[in-house]
Amino acid sequence: MSFQASLYVLVVLFFSFEILAQNTLVIQPSPTCAKEAMVWRLDTQQGPFGTTNDNNYSSITFWPVMNWTWNGSPGERYMLFDFLDGIVFPEDVMITSARLSLFAPDEPTSDQFHSLEVNTGKPSIGVIQGITEAWDANTLTWNNQPGTTSEEEVVLAAPSTEQEDYLDIDITTLIQRQVQQPGERHGLLMRMRETDFYRKLIFAGSRADDPALRPMLVIDYNGTAAHNATLPLDLLYTEYHQICPGESYTILPIDNSLITSYNWSTGETTPSITVQDTGAYSLIATLGDCIQVMDTIMISWRNNCFEPVSCDVFYPNIFSPNQDGVNDEFRLFYPSDCVLSNYRMEVYNRWGQQVFLSEHPAQGWRGEFKGKSVPGGVYIYQVLYQLPGSSERIQHSGQVTLVR
User: 32 is in which domain, residue-wise?
Assistant: First the structure.
């Protein structure tokens, strides 16, 4: 794609752990980058509008799709546009969705706004068709316009208000065909479905003062993105990276040679950024004068970042609760930096009666049951717990001798 005929593009790359990534390409032509033109036919070629059938209208400031009369002369206007001109998709691409949004002008044009059936008696129903021949926006006229096909054509319902926006028009099949058969499809043509007047749809074009009103195409696709195409569908080396607390990671583009400016989601404008926190980090890169590409990487915490804590647990087999301050209670012993979780200890006498229960590892049994001392002898215990960093709950049973 040459920068003279390129597109204003945002590429948003979503995260997938499969081989084929799920990507979204957002294309919104700017005034100097759009491939678009109007063709205009009038029955009368000697009037004040001149020889419209042979004139080129590639610099029109809005998108008129009309069957109308001009100074009493019937005529019609079509819009031709190609959002994908020069974009190279990977061979394994699979278009899953393509949605076109067209916005009404915020100010009246020379042809005003949409016409309504309540005023003209005729609904302004439009169609979008695939173009089957190559064309040049700078030399296009009514008389040399390319051929089209009604296969997969998309119908635009009549507007209900003069400034109705047409959002998320499903043109998936048309875009799929153009991507799959680039030598046979060359963009789209929009016209009125019926041939009689008075019918018109008026949309803001790529030269709208407000960039948000310019025509926008959103394409979702599966496939590996090409790094060596004129339009790099991937900017960053990876979509996903893991770090440990305290670590830093430098995010940088695959190729800086085409990038003229950087705008990171952090507010930085340097060729790379270094991060230490988790989250999504995006880069919007400007290529030349007309192309912008956005790529996103997700940073998350890595598991098992630290050396395992030594947790050698010791199970005593004897204790003497005689209040001498030595071995007065039965509990587990383990290093102070080892924190046991999901803990439970149960102690039973020889008749199977539970005499002690604790769910806190620091609470030991002092040889009592219901506030009274139990006789010396052998008791059965069961303990359950989890070690730090482990999802497994350990279960251990044994015997402990109480000495009086």
Answer: 3-222
